[in-house]
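Quick illustration, no need to memorize.
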Amino acid sequence: MILAAGCVLWRPGPEGQGIEIALVHRPKYDDWSHPKGKLKRGESARACALREVLEETGQSCELGQSLPTVHYLANGRLKEVTYWAARALGGTFAPSREVDVMAWLPPAAARPRLTQPRDRELLDVLLETAAH
């Protein structure tokens, strides 16, 4: 099994109106998703989630509530991704080979942009619990 971790990264919206969600575009898959990645040997899921958010978005963040763990097949192997809600604390995005674009969007615009239904479900859980 492939173990990974990630976050539904959010920040307060402009002028204190609602929140914005960070989405990343991965050119290899031409998809939009939440920042996530594989655990390194000996790394905890929490440490991985923080590292992946920083690597993919340039943002440092504070982990909040746990979100549902997601399971799916990736190249014929079972993948398990542990997620958290995470508040962005600041930083600067720099495009890379892995992530070429990052967008901050209000939830109503972020939801249809997400490629995978499982990513839309994570956003829905964050919004339903409103524990951000």
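DSSP finds three helices and seven strands in the chain.
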